[in-house]
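REQUEST ID: PR-0412
SUBMITTED BY: lab tech R.K.
PRIORITY: routine
TASK: structure prediction, single protein chain
INPUT:
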Amino acid sequence: MARFIDLSHEIHDGLVTYPGLAAPVIEPHMTFDASRDHYAAGHEFQIDRIEMIANTGTYIDTPAHRIRGGADLADLDLAAVAGLEVVVVRVPGATGAIEPAVLGGIDVTDKAVLFATGWDRHWATPAYGDGHPHLAAETADALVESNVALIGIDSLNVDGTADGTRPIHTAFLEAGIPILEHLTNLSAVPDTGAVLYAVPPKVRGMGSFPVRAFCVVYS
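STATUS: complete
OUTPUT:
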């Protein structure tokens, strides 16, 4: 038996993911009614279009998001984003920097390490972008040294956003470690034993893109 746990926020027209970045526009490209001129009698289709920035909803960052000439979505190995053993690090109520002490003696080598802060409770509200939890530089360094496979968090950003520096993105993406941001529902994922899938489309020339992130728990 397998239990599937959805970790992705819904994307809808007008959604604000990151304060200051454009919201998606979702609209018909061809309506059912308009399509009747193109198909045989009794046949109709709806074709929709979406205009959005890459950093919308729950999304993944590849090295090209931070590093000029870095590997992009089309370079992403499926093994880097599918079938990954999960470790959930729980820091409920966290604000500000998450220090490396939270890792304790947890084995994170070759794991997808997901930080469950509970900040997703503020999703799509003004509070989401204010004082969000993020990783301390020392925490990122420890995770890179431990050869984690992927890093994720259920808040606005793995980095603090009070200034223009992004040392956490730099540390992970220089090491080729994908980053998942804006996760949700991590409270439903066991601390260990789940398997993560977070596969974006194979787009050349883009460093970030939304994913349908989910975990599978086998029993």
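NOTES: Residues 137-145 form the longest helix (9 residues).
REVIEWED BY: pending
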